[in-house]
Protein backbone atom coordinates (compact mmCIF):
# COMPACT_ATOMS: atom_id res chain seq x y z
CA UNK A 1 0.00 0.00 0.00
CA UNK A 2 2.95 2.24 0.28
CA UNK A 3 2.81 3.11 -3.49
CA UNK A 4 -0.87 3.99 -3.10
CA UNK A 5 -0.08 6.13 -0.12
CA UNK A 6 2.44 8.07 -2.03
CA UNK A 7 -0.01 8.82 -4.86
CA UNK A 8 -2.64 10.47 -2.75
CA UNK A 9 -0.13 12.19 -0.47
CA UNK A 10 1.64 14.01 -3.37
CA UNK A 11 1.26 17.69 -3.03
CA UNK A 12 0.39 17.67 0.69
CA UNK A 13 2.22 19.93 3.08
CA UNK A 14 4.91 18.56 5.41
CA UNK A 15 2.76 18.99 8.41
CA UNK A 16 -0.14 17.09 6.92
CA UNK A 17 2.25 14.40 5.70
CA UNK A 18 3.56 14.01 9.22
CA UNK A 19 0.01 13.78 10.51
CA UNK A 20 -0.79 11.15 7.86
CA UNK A 21 2.27 9.13 8.93
CA UNK A 22 1.21 9.38 12.57
CA UNK A 23 -2.25 8.18 11.63
CA UNK A 24 -0.80 5.29 9.64
CA UNK A 25 1.37 4.26 12.62
CA UNK A 26 -1.67 4.55 14.88
CA UNK A 27 -3.66 2.44 12.40
CA UNK A 28 -1.00 -0.29 12.42
CA UNK A 29 -0.78 -0.20 16.21
CA UNK A 30 -4.58 -0.42 16.52
CA UNK A 31 -4.59 -3.21 13.97
CA UNK A 32 -2.04 -5.16 16.06
CA UNK A 33 -4.03 -4.46 19.27
CA UNK A 34 -7.17 -5.57 17.45
CA UNK A 35 -5.47 -8.83 16.50
CA UNK A 36 -4.28 -9.29 20.11
CA UNK A 37 -7.74 -8.52 21.43
CA UNK A 38 -9.26 -10.95 18.91
CA UNK A 39 -6.75 -13.59 20.02
CA UNK A 40 -7.65 -12.90 23.67
CA UNK A 41 -11.33 -13.08 22.75
CA UNK A 42 -10.79 -16.39 20.99
CA UNK A 43 -8.84 -17.70 23.99
CA UNK A 44 -11.55 -16.47 26.35
CA UNK A 45 -14.20 -18.09 24.15
CA UNK A 46 -12.25 -21.39 24.18
CA UNK A 47 -11.86 -21.11 27.95
CA UNK A 48 -15.58 -20.43 28.26
CA UNK A 49 -16.38 -23.51 26.22
CA UNK A 50 -14.07 -25.60 28.43
CA UNK A 51 -15.66 -24.14 31.58
CA UNK A 52 -19.12 -24.79 30.15
CA UNK A 53 -18.16 -28.39 29.41
CA UNK A 54 -16.77 -28.74 32.95
CA UNK A 55 -19.93 -27.18 34.34
CA UNK A 56 -22.10 -29.62 32.41
CA UNK A 57 -19.94 -32.53 33.58
CA UNK A 58 -20.14 -31.41 37.21
CA UNK A 59 -23.86 -30.81 36.82
CA UNK A 60 -24.28 -34.36 35.52
CA UNK A 61 -22.23 -35.71 38.44
CA UNK A 62 -24.29 -33.61 40.83
CA UNK A 63 -27.52 -35.06 39.43
CA UNK A 64 -26.05 -38.57 39.76
CA UNK A 65 -25.00 -37.86 43.36
CA UNK A 66 -28.45 -36.40 44.10
CA UNK A 67 -30.09 -39.58 42.77
CA UNK A 68 -27.72 -41.68 44.90
CA UNK A 69 -28.47 -39.49 47.91
CA UNK A 70 -32.19 -39.93 47.37
CA UNK A 71 -31.70 -43.68 47.10
CA UNK A 72 -29.65 -43.70 50.30
CA UNK A 73 -32.32 -41.62 52.04
CA UNK A 74 -34.98 -44.11 51.00
CA UNK A 75 -32.81 -47.01 52.19
CA UNK A 76 -32.20 -45.22 55.49
CA UNK A 77 -35.93 -44.59 55.89
CA UNK A 78 -36.62 -48.27 55.16
CA UNK A 79 -33.91 -49.25 57.65
CA UNK A 80 -35.43 -47.00 60.33
CA UNK A 81 -38.87 -48.50 59.67
CA UNK A 82 -37.39 -51.99 59.82
CA UNK A 83 -35.53 -51.12 63.04
CA UNK A 84 -38.74 -49.82 64.61
CA UNK A 85 -40.60 -52.98 63.57
CA UNK A 86 -37.78 -55.16 64.93
CA UNK A 87 -37.74 -53.15 68.17
CA UNK A 88 -41.47 -53.71 68.56
CA UNK A 89 -41.01 -57.42 67.81
CA UNK A 90 -38.19 -57.54 70.38
CA UNK A 91 -40.41 -55.92 73.03
CA UNK A 92 -43.17 -58.40 72.24
CA UNK A 93 -40.71 -61.32 72.45
CA UNK A 94 -39.30 -59.98 75.73
CA UNK A 95 -42.83 -59.74 77.13
CA UNK A 96 -43.48 -63.31 75.99
CA UNK A 97 -40.22 -64.47 77.58
CA UNK A 98 -41.18 -62.75 80.86
CA UNK A 99 -44.60 -64.38 80.71
CA UNK A 100 -43.10 -67.80 79.99
CA UNK A 101 -40.53 -67.33 82.79
CA UNK A 102 -43.40 -66.53 85.14
CA UNK A 103 -45.24 -69.64 83.98
CA UNK A 104 -42.04 -71.66 84.40
CA UNK A 105 -41.54 -70.35 87.93
CA UNK A 106 -45.18 -71.15 88.74
CA UNK A 107 -44.76 -74.64 87.27
CA UNK A 108 -41.56 -75.18 89.30
CA UNK A 109 -43.29 -74.04 92.47
CA UNK A 110 -46.23 -76.32 91.70
CA UNK A 111 -43.80 -79.16 90.93
CA UNK A 112 -41.95 -78.58 94.22
CA UNK A 113 -45.26 -78.51 96.07
CA UNK A 114 -46.33 -81.74 94.38
CA UNK A 115 -42.95 -83.35 95.16
CA UNK A 116 -43.32 -82.40 98.81
CA UNK A 117 -46.87 -83.72 98.78
CA UNK A 118 -45.66 -86.99 97.23
CA UNK A 119 -42.93 -87.32 99.86
CA UNK A 120 -45.44 -86.62 102.60
CA UNK A 121 -47.87 -89.16 101.17
CA UNK A 122 -45.11 -91.73 100.77
CA UNK A 123 -44.08 -91.19 104.39
CA UNK A 124 -47.71 -91.48 105.47
CA UNK A 125 -48.10 -94.64 103.39
CA UNK A 126 -44.98 -96.10 104.92
CA UNK A 127 -46.30 -95.29 108.41
CA UNK A 128 -49.61 -96.91 107.51
CA UNK A 129 -47.86 -99.97 106.14
CA UNK A 130 -45.68 -100.20 109.25
CA UNK A 131 -48.69 -99.80 111.53
CA UNK A 132 -50.57 -102.34 109.41
CA UNK A 133 -47.71 -104.82 109.85
CA UNK A 134 -47.70 -104.16 113.56
CA UNK A 135 -51.44 -104.67 113.80
CA UNK A 136 -51.14 -107.85 111.68
CA UNK A 137 -48.44 -109.07 113.99
CA UNK A 138 -50.55 -108.34 117.05
CA UNK A 139 -53.52 -110.10 115.57
CA UNK A 140 -51.54 -113.18 114.79
CA UNK A 141 -49.66 -113.20 118.03
CA UNK A 142 -52.81 -113.74 120.11
CA UNK A 143 -53.22 -117.34 121.21
CA UNK A 144 -55.68 -119.37 119.33
CA UNK A 145 -58.24 -121.39 121.31
CA UNK A 146 -59.59 -123.52 118.57
CA UNK A 147 -59.99 -127.26 118.63
CA UNK A 148 -57.10 -127.81 116.25
CA UNK A 149 -53.55 -127.93 117.43
CA UNK A 150 -51.74 -124.64 117.96
CA UNK A 151 -49.00 -125.70 115.56
CA UNK A 152 -51.28 -126.12 112.60
CA UNK A 153 -53.12 -122.91 113.15
CA UNK A 154 -49.96 -120.96 113.81
CA UNK A 155 -48.36 -122.17 110.54
CA UNK A 156 -51.34 -121.15 108.45
CA UNK A 157 -51.26 -117.71 110.03
CA UNK A 158 -47.63 -117.27 109.14
CA UNK A 159 -48.43 -118.08 105.53
CA UNK A 160 -51.26 -115.54 105.58
CA UNK A 161 -48.96 -112.91 107.06
CA UNK A 162 -46.36 -113.52 104.39
CA UNK A 163 -49.03 -113.15 101.69
CA UNK A 164 -50.31 -109.92 103.22
CA UNK A 165 -46.79 -108.58 103.51
CA UNK A 166 -46.19 -109.30 99.82
CA UNK A 167 -49.43 -107.53 98.94
CA UNK A 168 -48.50 -104.50 101.06
CA UNK A 169 -45.12 -104.25 99.43
CA UNK A 170 -46.55 -104.56 95.93
CA UNK A 171 -49.13 -101.86 96.83
CA UNK A 172 -46.30 -99.63 98.02
CA UNK A 173 -44.48 -100.10 94.73
CA UNK A 174 -47.61 -99.33 92.77
CA UNK A 175 -48.22 -96.10 94.66
CA UNK A 176 -44.65 -94.96 94.22
What does this structure look like?
The structure is a single chain. The protein has 176 residues and is mostly helical. 92% of the residues lie in helices and 0% in strands. The chain is built from three helices and no strands. The protein has helices at 2-9, 14-141, 150-175. Helix 2 packs antiparallel against helix 3 (150-175). 0% of the residues are buried. The mean pLDDT is 83.
Order of helices and strands: HHH
Shape: rod-shaped
| Oligomer status | single chain
Largest sheet: none
Radius of gyration: 63 Å
**Which band does the percent of strand residues land in?**
under 5%
Helix content: over 70%
Instruction: Work out the helix count.
Output: 3
Please mark out the parts with pLDDT under 50 across 5 or more consecutive residues, or reply none: none
Query: What is the number of beta strands?
Result: 0
Q: Estimate the mean pLDDT confidence.
A: 83
Q: What is the end-to-end distance? A: 141 Å
**Sheet/helix structural class:** mainly alpha
Amino acid sequence: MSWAEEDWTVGLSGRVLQKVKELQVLKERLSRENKQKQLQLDNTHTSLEKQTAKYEEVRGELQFVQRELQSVREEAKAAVTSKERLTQDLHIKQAQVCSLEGQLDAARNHNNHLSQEIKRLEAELEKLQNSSRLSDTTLFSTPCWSASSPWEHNGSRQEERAGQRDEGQSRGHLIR
